[in-house]
Write a structure and sequence with these properties.
Elements lengths: L1 E10 L5 E10 L4 E6 L5 H9 L1 H4 L3 E9 L4 E4 L5 H4 L3 H8 L7 H10 L4 H5 L10 H13 L5 E5 L7 H13 L4 E4 L3 H7 L2 E8 L4 E7 L3 H46 L5 H26 L27 E7 L2 E3 L2 E4 L3 E6 L3 E5 L6 H13 L5 E4 L13 H5 L5 H13 L4 H4 L8 H15 L3 E5 L7 H13 L4 E4 L3 H7 L2 E6 L2 E5 L6
Parallel strand pairs: 3-7, 3-8, 5-6, 6-7, 14-17, 14-18, 15-16, 16-17
Antiparallel strand pairs: 1-2, 1-4, 8-9, 10-13, 11-12, 18-19
């Protein structure tokens, strides 16, 4: 049994309330998707449910979390450095009690998750050497073999290739136990959920709203959109009707007021009638004021992240060659990843995406592309998969984005960060303390403010909320320069890119966008 009553979570650092008086029960077979913008408390919520003691290090927790006879498996978003430096077998020795292990189950899950047993048996192979997708599969394997009765997953889809995402979908749907997971992947949410918890932060992040709906993500999104449309229609209709009443009231009031001001002193009875009439008119005005208070209010929602590039025409002329890459093979240092020629030609403002299985070498390839383009006279916006590779995390967002401290530039940066929903105190906080999504926003801001001519993006949607994805795609569609990206997000790929390239052991080849399923 898993019951939460009146849960309130408060961030100790800035006393921001993340969740307020929230109650729910987790039932057998539940597949609960946790959604919301970055920084709204999804990971904090999951950790508080899993381990109150650990969460208490940075959260004040009120309310009750009742767990009876449950064994929770928790896939964390990040591993600490100590565990990253463990071999796979060392990690499993900590995670698994081999004296009670069901070895049939062990090999079933090993095969199902496509985990490489040779790497487990190699004492020199470290967890940090696994690709992002391989790491997720291995960690999920290490949890499932312990036979948990509840499974928590903190952004398991971030590093998975498309085939692995489909595998994860199958696993989540087939598990008989409750699964609660955070994800930004719309397809995963649409295909796997039967309940949704939506975390929002309203009134400049001062008021949290946590919505629980016992429907799938696809149904929730449709329901929410329909509700918002109806709400706007009612707001507009009420306002139109009220405005007509006010217009009539003002006409009557002005007419009576004029008559009162011009009535002859020689006609006291007429003056009395007008005063009585004005009394009635003012009563009508007071009724209208009360009616105004009861008009349909616009339902407050958290605005999506909105990026706006300075859309100059022809950042790169259509006829200009951006990239003419010819490699005999793809290798990292002296290790050959793909022993086939790699050719990629990009001209003008083309939008190109590279897909492929985890570990095949996509990130290696895009880093080579970045290095080659740096030799040309382009202003390049490069977003690596690991933000810390380039972010100066000891700086504040303001310090990172400002080139000079002229008032005009300061105002511009303050305004832009404000449009991305950064509060003043967050602008002056070290980047290292920000969430993954907030760090992503800093990267996007840098690209926008620097007016980069070419964007190179390694899995750019991994920290974008589904409710911000459409506006993010729209901004990149409007961008007038070329985009070269790696992505596993099926909606993102189909909505933005003109060309899709598949990287595998046979090299790099263009495929039809419709093949991305």
């Amino acid at each position: 049994m898993f019951i939460v009553n009146n849960l309130t979570l408060i961030n100790k650092k800035d006393l921001r309330v993340l969740v307020k008086d929230f109650s729910f029960t987790l039932n057998q077979g539940d597949k609960v998707g946790l959604i919301g913008e970055e920084g709204n408390g999804k990971s904090s919520f999951l950790l508080a449910l899993y381990d109150e003691k650990e969460a208490n290090e940075y959260l004040e927790i009120e309310g009750s979390i009742n767990i009876k006879n449950e064994k929770i498996g928790f896939l964390r978003q990040f591993l600490d450095e100590t565990r990253l430096n463990m071999s796979l077998s060392e990690y499993l020795n900590e995670a698994i009690d081999y004296s009670t292990l069901d070895y049939n189950l062990y090999y079933q899950i090993l095969d199902r998750l496509e985990v490489d047993e040779d790497k487990i048996n190699n004492p020199d192979f470290k967890i940090k050497s696994l690709s992002g997708g391989e790491r997720i599969k291995f960690l999920l394997f290490s949890i499932l073999v312990t036979e948990p009765t509840i499974l928590f997953l903190d952004e398991p889809s971030n590093d998975l290739d498309i085939s692995s995402l489909k595998m994860l979908e199958r696993v989540i749907k087939s598990l008989p136990i409750p699964v609660m997971f955070i994800s930004h992947d719309e397809d995963l949410l649409s295909n796997c959920t039967n309940r949704i918890i939506h975390f929002e932060s309203l009134q400049s992040k001062s008021e949290p709203r946590t919505t629980l709906r016992n429907i799938s993500y696809k149904e929730y999104k449709k329901e929410r959109l329909s509700f918002l449309e109806r709400n706007i229609q009612l707001v507009n209709k009420d306002k139109e009707n009220f405005d007509k009443k006010m217009e009539k009231y003002n006409r009557v009031y002005n007419s009576v007021d004029y008559a009162l001001n011009t009535v002859s002193r020689q006609c006291p009875s007429e003056a009395k009638n007008l005063k009585d009439k004005m009394h009635s008119v003012k009563s009508m005005g007071r009724r209208l004021e009360k009616e105004k208070e009861n008009l349909t209010k616009k339902f407050e929602v958290e605005d999506p992240i909105i990026l706006k590039f300075n859309n100059k025409k022809d950042l790169i002329p259509p006829s200009k060659t951006v990239l003419d890459l010819e490699l005999e093979n793809l290798k990292i240092n002296e290790t050959v990843l793909i022993d086939k020629p790699i050719n990629l030609f990009i001209k003008g403002p083309e939008k190109v995406v590279i897909i492929g299985d985890n570990g095949v070498g996509k990130t290696t390839l895009i880093k080579l592309i970045y290095e080659k383009l740096k030799e040309k006279d382009f202003k390049i916006g490069y977003m690596p998969q690991n933000y810390e590779d380039l972010l100066l995390t000891y700086k504040t967002p303001l310090e990172y984005l400002i080139n000079s401290y002229k008032k005009e530039e300061l105002d511009k940066v303050y305004t832009y960060l404000g449009s991305l929903k950064f509060k003043k105190e967050e602008m002056d906080r070290e980047i290292s303390s920000l969430s993954g999504g907030e760090k992503a926003k800093i990267f996007y801001s840098k690209m926008v403010l620097d007016e980069d001519e070419v964007l190179i993006l390694d899995e750019p949607t991994r920290n974008i909320s589904p409710f911000s994805l459409d506006s993010f795609i729209e901004a990149l569609n409007d961008y007038k320069g070329p985009i070269i990206a790696i992505s596993h997000d099926r909606k993102f790929i189909k909505s933005l890119f003109e060309k899709v390239y598949l990287l595998n052991k046979d090299g790099l080849k263009e495929i039809d966008k419709e093949e991305v399923e």
